[in-house]
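Hi Y.,

Following your request, here is the sequence exactly as I used it, all 109 residues.
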Amino acid sequence: MWWYNPSMKSSLTSRRKVSGVMVSPREIRLEEPLDLPEGTLVEVVIDTHPSGVISQSSELPRGSLSLMLAVLDEIREELQRVGFVPPAREEVDERIRLERLSWEDKETR
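Below is the corresponding structure, written out as C-alpha cells. Let me know if you'd prefer a different format.
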C-alpha cells in the first residue's frame, strides 16, 4: 500500500482534473482515460459532487459511456435497496412460452 509522502509534492510534474464515479470503496470509474503509462504513481484528491451522488442530470456528457454506466449503477443500487429479486430463468422462459402460444392462438382465428 502506498502512503502520502509530503516530500513527494515537489516531484509532481503535472496536475489534471478528471471527473468520475465511485463504483466501490477502492475503485473510481473516470469519465475519460488517463494518458499515463501503467504503473505511474499518482496522487488522488477527492472533491465530491455537491449532491453526493451523480445522477442522470450530472455533468457527464449526454450519450456517453460514463453516463450510461453511472445510471445503470444507480438503477442497480435502487433495485437492491428496495429488495427487488429478478425472476428465475425458468419463470422467464415460461412467460415467453405462454406469450408465443398466445400468438399462435391469434393466428388460427
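The two ends are 71 Å apart (CA to CA).

Thanks again,
Q.
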